[in-house]
Structure formats: structure tokens, C-alpha cells
Amino acid sequence: MGDDASRQTTFGADGELSDRDPDADDTNDFGEPMDADETQGGYNRYAVSSLLQKAVRRSDEEVAAWAAWELARSGFAWNLWERLHLYVVEDLRAGQEVALLVDRYETLATDRWDPAEWRGRLCAIHAALACARASSSREAPNADEFFRNAAAERAEARETGGEPQVDFPVGEFEPGGEYDVAFDKHTGEGSRMGRDGEFFKTHGARVGPTGEDEQSARWQRLNMALHDVDFSGAQVAHAVDPVDADDKWAEPEFDDGEGE
Fold first, then answer.
1. Which residues pair with residue 136 across a beta bridge?
2. Where is this region: Disordered (predicted)?
3. Which sequence spans correspond to the domains of the chain?
4. What distance in Å separates the CA atoms of residue 238 and residue 235, rounded to the nearest whole number?
5. Please, are residues 40 and 70 in contact by the beta-carbon 8 Å criterion?
């Protein structure tokens, strides 16, 4: 189910859009007939789903585990897994492996076992706990919102002939500017400027600020030695040197008579 956000606006609407597992119980813990969007414990599943994401966002392990268990046992496993997958892109600090764990737990719960039976519920709890223990961050949504607001501000400024209050981090992004190194042989502008493999090897392939490890640096030096360009010693050293942590886009020019 890929559109839970739109469904959330319909809670309480006679339950016509409910997607409870048809094999799930039709009575709650109290033996009462369940509404279409009611969980076994008598809660609204939209509220429990929202609580799940808030709990993992705030690192409340017990509440996250319960909310995942409640959705899984109530026939709303799809809602549970949609929420956890949303969490890993909306509320998780980038680069953490819990995103892969969530996918694996879902595969076990839904492809190998019944998501509502005990093994499926254990997978739900494991996934929720893994998410709650991960480092939460709203960096991706905050960045997305800022970039959208900046785009609107730039468009409005152009229409009125003024200057935007905020701009994209790259500004005008033109050759000769702060991010000049991006215009290499892989771009039309760079090609027209004659920036070939020599420019890319010397400037465009640098990493940082920790730099290459020794093995990777060794390979790069050998590659440059075997290249059809006669690179200078300064160019080779610069190519494997880490970028400046305080000025990541700074690039010197080389004019020592060796190479270009």
C-alpha cells in the first residue's frame, strides 16, 4: 500500500478504505465487533500508526515495540511496514544500516511467515526496536522543505526583479565560480573549455576531507603514471591529497611546465 498519507485523511469514514487482512479476527480483545479501522486493543489504527512513527522518532523503544505489535496482530501489517519504511527515509540520519534491516524483517514477516502470527509479530517488534535505537534526524525532510522554499523564493525574485532572501547553496553555479571544478569533461561547459582527462584526474576525482586510503592512492598514482598525459609531480600529489575541510572546493592551478 503506497499511499497511506492520503488514506490518513479518511479515518472514521465508515471504514470503506480499510485494508485489514481478511483472515484477521473480526472481534477485538473484548469480544466486540471491530470497526474497519480498529485494532485488536480497540484503538484507531491511524492513531497507532502515527504513534509508531513518533515513538521511533523519539527513541521510545517500548512504545514503538507495542505499536508495531498491535498493528501486526490486528491485520494491519501493511500499515506497520509502510510506516517503518517511511521512517527510514523521513526520520533517520542518513547512512545507517537499519534501513536494510527493516526490509529484511518485512521479507521474513510477509513472504516467509504470516505477518499476524507470532513469528511475524516478532519481526515487527525487532524492526520497531531497531528503528527506535537508530539515530533519528529530520535532516532529509528539513532539507527538502528548505530547497522547495528556496526554489519558490528564487522564482518570485526573478519575477519581481529583486534578489531572493535565500538561494540554493550553489548560487548561480557557473564556470569560474566556487564550484568550478564540477565543469569537467563530463559536462558540456567543461568540454568546451578543453577540460579533458588531465583536469578530471587532477581536480575532479579528489575526495575528502579524510582523503584516499593508501591502497587507493597508490592505484591512482599508478593510473596517472600510465595515462597518456605527462602529469607533473605536483598534479599527482594534488590528485590524491584530501580536500581542505574548511574550503572543500578550493582548487589551485598548475603551471609548472609539466603536463598541461
1. 92
2. 1-41, 192-213
3. 4-133, 176-260
4. 5
5. yes
- The three-class DSSP label of residue 141 is helix
Say what the pTM is. Answer: 0.71
Q: pLDDT at position 88, please?
A: 87
Q: Report how far Cα 2 is from the mean position of its chain's Cα atoms.
A: 17
Grouping H, G, I as helix, E, B as strand and the rest as coil, residue 227 is coil
* Helices 61-73 and 77-90, packing angle to 10 deg: 140
Phi-psi region of 257 (alpha: psi -120 to 50; beta: other; left: phi over 0): left
Maximum CA extent, the chain: 88
**How do residues 4-42 score in pLDDT, each as one tens digit?**
443 333 343 333 345 766 666 677 778 788 888 889 888
What is the distance between the alpha carbons of residues 238 and 217, in angstroms, rounded to a whole number? 11
